[in-house]
Backbone:
């Protein structure tokens, strides 16, 4: 089955700096890659997603890139703010051909003011 | 907020007991997925329900079962609770046409003593 690896497990950045989280996946049939943000005591919140027919997608300070050949995708957060502090999860899915999300292990991001 | 609600928020049970967790999907969503999130880990797919039938299952034993109702709400039942069942149980709703795009509720924290 699919396996998703996520790095780093923790990330500390200064407010205003950029944060980058990287994920690799094993199943070449995966074609949908969402990113979730989970704050303490809450469920995961979908922040951005990308499909395999797109190499990059941006939404304000958040961007995701996908390299299907290398089977890895990354989340980029620019101009980080203290409210960006949370645990971030990447996930992979086979889209219409599958119904489950396989998650990475998570990255705890701390933005220091 | 996603509009997905779960109850109860917290629950304490003892080993061997049975538990029922409930989920109301986001308005208009007809598919419900359940995930187990152990402390410090990413969510793991338990199963998905569409049209009141199981539509895919992860690597969980049969003592994990579910139901979906005509109004698309859902229940997760766990029999013969074990200590390792202690986790955050997350419900996610989606449209069957885009079932991979899943929106999570706040979760139910289950502690098994």
Residues:
């Amino acid at each position: 089955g699919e396996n998703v690896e996520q790095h780093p497990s923790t990330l500390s950045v200064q407010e205003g700096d950029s944060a980058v989280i990287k994920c690799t996946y094993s199943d070449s049939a995966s074609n949908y890659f969402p990113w979730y943000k989970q704050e303490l005591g809450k469920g995961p919140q979908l922040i951005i997603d990308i499909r395999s027919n797109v190499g990059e997608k941006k939404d304000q300070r958040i961007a995701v890139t996908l390299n299907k050949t290398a089977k890895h995708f990354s989340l980029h957060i620019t101009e980080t703010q203290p409210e960006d502090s949370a645990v971030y999860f990447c996930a992979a899915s086979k889209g219409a051909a599958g119904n489950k999300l396989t998650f990475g292990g998570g990255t705890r991001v701390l933005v220091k003011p | 907020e996603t509009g997905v609600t779960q109850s109860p928020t917290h629950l304490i049970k003892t080993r061997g007991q049975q538990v029922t967790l409930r989920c109301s999907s986001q308005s208009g969503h007809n598919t419900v997925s359940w995930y187990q999130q152990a402390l410090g880990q990413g969510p793991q797919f338990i199963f998905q329900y569409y049209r009141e039938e199981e539509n895919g299952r992860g690597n969980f034993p049969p003592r994990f079962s579910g139901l979906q109702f005509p109004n698309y709400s859902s229940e997760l039942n766990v029999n013969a609770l074990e200590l390792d069942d202690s986790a955050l149980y997350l419900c996610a709703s989606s449209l069957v046409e885009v079932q991979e795009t899943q929106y999570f509720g706040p979760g139910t924290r289950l502690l098994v003593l």
In short: Residues 30 and 77 of chain A are 24 Å apart (CA to CA).
